[in-house]
Amino acid sequence: MTDAPDDARQAPPEATLVPAPQHTPLWLALSRLLERLEAWLRSHGGHRLRTGIRVFWAAVTALGILLLVGPVLNAPLTFDDITSSAKDATSTWFAKDFSAEYVVVRDDEGRLVAQVEERFTAVFPDDVDEHAIERVVASQYEGHDLRPRLREARLDDAIVEARTSAGPTRTTYTIDAGERLTGTHDVVLSYEMRDLAYDDSDPSSQQSYQVLEWDVFGPDWPRGVAGSSLRVSVPRDLAATYARQPTSGIAWLLVSGSTTLEPEDAASDPLVYEVSNDQNIPPHGSFWFTLRFAPGTLAMPGPSPLFYLQAYGPFVPLLLLAVGVLFALAARAVAWGDARGRAWFVPESQRRRGSSVALDARLWGARRTAALAEALEAWRRSPEDPRLTRRLARAGYRAGRWGDLVPAGRAFHFSPAWRAQFDDGLRRVPRGFVRDAFLGGAIALTALQFGLARQLSHQRALTLEWWPPVAAVAGAILAVAVIAIALSARPLTREGALAREHLLGQRLHLDQTLAAERATLRSVDLPYVVMFARPRAAGRLVRNLLAREGIGRRAGAGPTFFGAGRLGVRFAAVAVVGGAVALAFLTASPTSPPPDQSDVLDDLDGSYGVAVTDARFDATLVRSDDGSARLDVVERLRADVAAHLRAVPQVTRAWRDVVDGHDQGLRVQEITVDGRAVPFEQTRRMGYAVVQSRLPDDWEGEHDVEVRYTLDRPVVAAQADGAAVEELTWTALMPRWTWTWQLPDLETERLRMSLTLSDELADSLTDGSGWLDGTPNRPDEPPIPFGDTLQRGDQAVVAFDENVDDEYESDSLWPDGYGGVQLRFAEGTFAASPAPGIGHALWIGLPWALGPVLGLLAVVLGLVGSLARGRIGVQRDLARWMPPSLTIAQMFLVGWAAGEASDDDPILPVVLVPLVVSIVVGVFAFIRTRRTSAPGERPRHPARPRRKSAATR
């Protein structure tokens, strides 16, 4: 490398200085580190070390592939695994009279310690040949190191030496009898564990706890159990911090049961809880208990090192790849940067000796103008050759356009002139240990990242997490970047740098002599003028010169070039399909049946466990002083609450508060249980108003529940039979409302509903008022007229009182869909809210209009494009791309708009007829526009010359 200051002092007066590259301190530091590493590796080994590094990365790649396609490590048991193990319960020993005693205390530091004693009888069938009894306990739990310590092991009342095998997350105690075990053997294990509790919150009450939730059988119990019992001792001072009553239960697959633990003696210290089960439990069953303490009761340890490894270890490959990108960029900028020539250059009027336009274009890096410069050079030497003329015309009319990006790049790198740079020593390919590390590490770490993502996707705690696949995709993107940087580095040698400085001198000379303004197609300097110019400017210059020579655009026409118009057609075709897919999968069509109450409350913690046996809904319509309407509602529910549930049952209600695009402004004011106000939270799910209480503890038994809410904007302006009216729709109950109010042997037996309004308002009622009778599949069903249910007195009241036994009577008002009232008033009765805007109307009409519009577009574009027949161009592309894409888009939208339509639904012909027409037009346009030869192009299938007849001969 030339010393720039000394070299600059030797420059002639007319020289232009070349500034040295200014790299950032980070790039310099990283590159310097890579150079030192390369030098150290070269000094400590040659071919053997290089081979060893490659073998290492190959091994990491093989490990990643094994994790990706091989067996899942520590895979959770499947449903079939557990059921099949139940059939083979007697193929190994099983436990009889399993009992466990847990003494839970706090140590001097306030941390939880559990002293455990397990007793069971191991039964060995006659055909079982085993010599040892194994017991597996957890050693890592919720990020805590439990530090299990065995205190004593007994076999048939004799103290034995149990072998302890500690794994990453489990500890195994093995009692080896030294001989085959037969019959029954009494086993006693005493051990101690610490820090079993962890911080958590109840998803139903949203109350924070410190939870001890423990499975007595442990993380791996492939044994059947005949009879089991549990005894838990808790000091009174610790029990005083309970945030919720202790619970316990058993579970096997979908079968489970739980109970609330009660102390044997409420006055004792410690409190002792005992629960027993005389049923047989198949292998892989669960026998658990839960203690929930107030926050701050127990001192919590920090996460264990294994927790950090499991939580953040899968990100290590991604982190290494991100660091690799930084190092690769630094190497590309500095270590793999171009060599320095002189620190100056002078104007050059002549080409470099031994150079060519093609070679100089590669040295200059003229990716988008190299083809045009070569075409000019070739045509200048033989302007009478029509092939060279056509080549020049094509290059001139393509230069600088979007459609020329890929062809220009391909021609730039796959030309013989590209290889000639390396043969002439003008460029070099960086090689060495560092480059091998970039290439091998990028591939290996990507394989490892995908393998980890696949392994983690099988873990139950991560099945709903998004980060493993996202991390894998991000790692692949970073790996591609590292490989691209490493493989594309082709720096200039000193000879190449000197050659490029000569090109700088040529450019300076051409600028000083205004070569671009006086150039002709036959000018010797024109190829270099084009080479140095911007692609668009170069193309514009050559096109003007071609026009002067009388060479038109058609001379350069070609079927393989895609201009902005043809690219736009393809982009529009893909965008139409993408938009249809997004609309179909990300939104619900207005023609689809709306969700019912069980859909809205599905998987909502705490929504199960409250059975309503008697429900009464009383609403009062009030007209305020400003003329606006307000509806006050009181729901009185007789509730029977289940016990022994893991989630605290909550008062949960859902309402349709947006009717035909109008938001009624529902506000829950209060929820009371037995006259006492309870905390609650109002949210939205699936577009519906949902409220849920936040009771902190179990409240089993019968209770009186009241829910008070208000509709601030219940009345909206509407149209009925062409006349302006004002409409109120009160939806007290949603479809399938009984499903969420049921428990085994309990259901809603009585339902009362009433709405009170003044006589003045009752006089303003018009036709169309009545009890709601619609369902999700029949949302526009007219209401049932009030008839005798409307009573007049001091006030007007509409009300009914129905029993479930009369549900199927012809005159029963028991709702099987929406339950509530629709009132229509004469215009001007209230200061009503305006009707929903044009946006809502467009959305409602979208399923009905989208199919015909897309079908019409397919027909128009297909027929217009067919006029082009086989001529290559935008018009032909319209016919070959747009009708198929519009047809595919309609296929997705048919399912979106009419996926749940019945056979007689009018939406079906609206979406199916345009689809069929689009298919027909698309096939017609495709056949009609089969490709023919372009002007100047040889026919794809030349016609055979006719054989001359004898007379002609």
Helical fraction: 25-40%
Which residues form runs of ≥5 with pLDDT under 50?
1-6, 933-937, 939-953
Computed structural class: alpha+beta
For the biggest sheet, the summary is: 8 strands, mixed
Distance between the termini: 79 Å
Strand portion, in percent? 25-35%
The radius of gyration over CA amounts to 41 Å
Shape verdict: flat
- How many extended strands? 36
| Sheet with the most strands: spatial strand order | 26-25-29-21-20-32-35-34
Helical run tally: 24
pLDDT averaged over residues: 87
Can you walk through the features of this model?
- Helices cover 35% and strands 26% of the residues.
- The protein starts with a helix and ends in a 25-residue tail after the last helix.
- By secondary structure, it is of the alpha+beta class.
- The protein is flat and about 105 Å long.
- Residues 1-6, 933-937 and 939-953 have low confidence and may be disordered.
- It has an eight-stranded mixed beta sheet. A seven-stranded mixed beta sheet has the order 8-7-11-3-2-14-17.
- It is built from 24 helices and 36 strands.
Q: What's the quick description here?
A:
The chain has 953 residues and is of the alpha+beta class. The chain has 24 helices and 36 strands.
What key attributes describe this structure?
953 residues, alpha+beta, 8-stranded mixed sheet, 7-stranded mixed sheet, disordered N terminus
